[in-house]
Specification:
This protein is α+β, with helices and mostly antiparallel strands and about 300 residues long. Helices cover about 45% and strands about 15% of the residues. α7 crosses α8 and α7 packs across α9.
């Protein structure tokens, strides 16, 4: 639900438990229950700087009481009192208690206030006046006059900001893991299944003297140039697979060195195999060792 639509809401009891757990005195809040029912209703306003924070302004149907209180304060101070806004809501006079406003998160809202199943909006002029008075109250408190208002809204706001930061960090980690899993799943879709023969080739490599070096390149952990590592792996695969191009392609596609470019992979495999039989290396990235030809260079891998 869009909390800009001037509806009123009821707040979850869990919010007040959370406040007490964090050292906030909740005795200055209006009681959230009466005879087992939620009270009061709260006008909900979005924070102008952080849309994740909502400001709740309680309503009271004791119109005359707060009208007298407002007049008393204004006569004593000789200026307008911004802590109480008087207006009509749901067909009767209500006092909008800006002096009792406080911030929450959306999860702290229990439900919207309704009549016959329909939400009851506050009139736009009243909602605008309450929003303006709340802005003024917060500015005055920031300037140092924290006596205006009954609740330590600054401390609550700090607690909410910390909770939001922690939640976003957690969400970032979760999203990162989801993205990593998605990439792995997409990679698996294009990865050809390794045959028993392929696995046998990999075992022979891992058992060889060059196994640890191969594994380093194959896993993508090597700090050397990726192209150089790719050719090293392909040269090794060429020897152990008896130049089986299909096996070379399947195994390499399962490696972290594969970048999805089949044309480049096929070209590289062709260069490697040609390099073995020509005795002149395996194209770009080819070095000595396996690239010197099958007859004499290949034995270096045994």
């Amino acid at each position: 639900m869009d909390h800009n639509l001037r509806y009123t809401y009821h707040i979850s009891d869990d919010y007040f438990t959370w406040l007490r757990d964090n050292g906030i005195d909740t005795t200055k809040f209006m009681s959230n229950r009466k005879n087992g029912n939620y009270r009061p209703t709260f006008l909900c306003l979005k924070d102008t700087q952080n849309p994740d924070i909502l400001w709740m302004v309680p309503l009271s149907t004791q119109y005359e009481k707060y009208q007298d209180k407002k007049l008393e304060i204004e006569n004593k101070r000789h200026k307008e009192y911004i802590g109480i806004v008087l207006g009509q809501y749901n067909g009767r006079g209500n006092a909008f208690l800006v002096q009792n406003a406080f911030p929450i998160l959306e999860k702290h809202i229990d439900h919207v206030h309704t009549r016959n199943g329909n939400p009851i909006p506050v009139s736009q002029p009243i909602a605008d006046e309450v929003k303006n008075k709340l802005h003024q109250l917060r500015q005055i408190r920031r300037a140092g006059n924290t006596k205006l208002g009954f609740i330590d809204i600054e401390k609550i706001e700090q607690l909410l900001m910390r909770e939001l930061a922690a939640s976003k960090n957690t969400q970032s980690v979760v999203e990162s893991k989801k993205l990593e899993q998605k990439q792995q799943d997409e990679h698996k879709k294009v990865m050809p299944a390794l045959t028993s023969s392929d696995n046998s080739i990999l075992k022979r490599i891992s058992d060889s003297a060059k196994g640890s070096m191969f594994d380093s390149y194959f896993s993508g952990r090597s700090t050397i140039d990726k192209n150089q590592a790719s050719h090293f792996v392909l040269r090794t695969l060429a020897f152990f697979s008896n130049f089986d191009k299909g096996a070379m392609e399947r195994i390499f596609k399962n490696s972290k060195l594969y970048d999805g470019d089949n044309n480049k992979l096929n070209k590289s495999i062709g260069e490697v195999i040609a390099g073995f039989f020509s005795g002149s290396g395996s194209g770009s990235g080819a070095g000595s060792g396996a690239g010197k030809g099958r007859g004499n260079g290949g034995d270096n891998y045994r």
